[in-house]
């Protein structure tokens, strides 16, 4: 006999097959003909189909609305109900330093570089250009490219792209946003404790992860080690924003979110470069430069995942995991002599450092 108490079932278990089996069991108890085409079964089938569709639609709605499974705009709205937003709420622009020889343009002038358009700005008394396009794809321009004014600037001899000043960031993904939301609902984030200080920091745009060191400089002191949303060393402006938000001037006056007498200091996590070297046998149509880019991107994504999601104060870059990532690159037939930071063992980053991709060297097997 099938289960008669429908309340004991999940929404996705109440299917047409289940309801049909229930109908046949009930018909057997009543002593009526339950064969296909019988009057009893024909009378029930239409209601069963409609009921099964109703529960299927209900299961879909439940999945959309449940905090454990909802995505996109629904998750964003749920976060807004709790005074939260994605970090960042939308893709951001990339900011590059630029060097001018001769005259300088005006703030707000339009520039182009590598077929992308930028606006001139000042950052900490240095000239920068801010991309009109957003997202992490804008972080890949190579220093040394020429920067071309949209309109002539008298006596400007040259403009050259320099290093990335503020990386572009993609909108926070669903899994990360959901994790922060659930932490706020269920975590003991109150009274300025460790969880709450970390939550305060990670709500600030540009912060992907915060590690805390209590009593680092005496009683009532807290050090916040900031990691960017890209899992790297954050920009100075992000660290300053964290400091000003939590405890302006690290004075403990309670003028920010930190309580009276809590001396909070924000610092940037220092980058620890992870170099990769290996020999490969490639497919005939592949190139070593292409494989080098693929290896770099794969390890970079792995390091980002570690930096943003590690639950330990120390981050361990496992040699076997790096090897597995390289094994999954389709352009590589085989590889050998893999070295991670010059060796074949695990690499550890302490609480003050964050791993970032360094030099990647790919050589051909002879």
UniProtKB/TrEMBL annotation:
<protein>
    <submittedName>
        <fullName>Baseplate J/gp47 family protein</fullName>
    </submittedName>
</protein>
<feature type="domain" description="Baseplate J-like C-terminal">
    <location>
        <begin position="274"/>
        <end position="363"/>
    </location>
</feature>
<feature type="domain" description="Baseplate J-like central">
    <location>
        <begin position="190"/>
        <end position="253"/>
    </location>
</feature>
<comment type="similarity">
    <text>Belongs to the Mu gp47/PBSX XkdT family.</text>
</comment>
<dbReference type="InterPro" id="IPR058531">
    <property type="entry name" value="Baseplate_J_M"/>
</dbReference>
<dbReference type="Pfam" id="PF26078">
    <property type="entry name" value="Baseplate_J_M"/>
</dbReference>
<dbReference type="Pfam" id="PF26079">
    <property type="entry name" value="Baseplate_J_C"/>
</dbReference>
<dbReference type="InterPro" id="IPR058530">
    <property type="entry name" value="Baseplate_J-like_C"/>
</dbReference>
<dbReference type="InterPro" id="IPR052399">
    <property type="entry name" value="Phage_Baseplate_Assmbl_Protein"/>
</dbReference>
């Amino acid at each position: 006999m099938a289960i008669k108490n429908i309340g004991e079932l999940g929404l996705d278990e109440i299917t047409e097959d289940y309801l049909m089996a229930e109908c046949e069991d009930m018909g057997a108890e009543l002593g009526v003909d339950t064969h296909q085409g019988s009057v009893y079964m024909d009378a029930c089938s239409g209601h069963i189909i409609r009921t099964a569709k109703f529960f299927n639609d209900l299961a879909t709605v439940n999945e959309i609305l449940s905090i454990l499974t909802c995505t996109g705009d629904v998750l964003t709205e749920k976060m807004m109900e709790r005074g939260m937003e994605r970090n960042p709420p939308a893709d951001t622009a990339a900011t590059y330093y630029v060097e001018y020889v001769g005259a300088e343009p005006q703030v707000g002038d339009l520039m182009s570089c590598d077929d992308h358009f930028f606006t001139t700005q000042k950052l900490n008394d240095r000239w920068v250009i801010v991309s009109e396009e957003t997202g992490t794809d804008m972080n890949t321009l190579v220093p040394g490219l020429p920067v071309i004014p949209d309109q002539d600037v008298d006596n400007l001899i040259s403009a050259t792209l320099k290093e990335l000043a503020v990386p572009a960031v993609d909108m926070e993904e669903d899994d990360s946003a959901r994790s922060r939301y659930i932490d706020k609902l269920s975590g003991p984030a109150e009274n300025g404790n460790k969880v709450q200080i970390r939550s305060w920091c990670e709500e600030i745009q540009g912060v992907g992860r915060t590690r805390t060191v209590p009593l680092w400089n005496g009683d009532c002191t807290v050090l916040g080690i900031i990691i960017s949303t890209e899992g790297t060393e954050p920009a100075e402006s992000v660290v300053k924003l964290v400091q000003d938000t939590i405890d302006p001037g690290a004075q403990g006056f309670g003028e920010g979110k930190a309580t009276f007498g809590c001396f909070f200091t924000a610092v940037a996590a220092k980058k620890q470069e992870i170099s990769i070297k290996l020999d490969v046998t490639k497919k005939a149509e592949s190139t070593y430069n292409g494989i080098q880019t693929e290896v770099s991107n794969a390890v970079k994504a792995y390091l980002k995942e570690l930096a943003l999601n590690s639950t330990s104060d120390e981050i361990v870059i496992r040699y076997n995991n790096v090897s597995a990532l390289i094994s999954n690159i389709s352009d590589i037939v085989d590889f050998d002599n893999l070295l991670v930071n010059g060796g074949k063992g695990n690499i550890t980053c302490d609480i003050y450092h964050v791993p970032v991709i360094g030099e990647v060297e790919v050589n051909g097997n002879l």
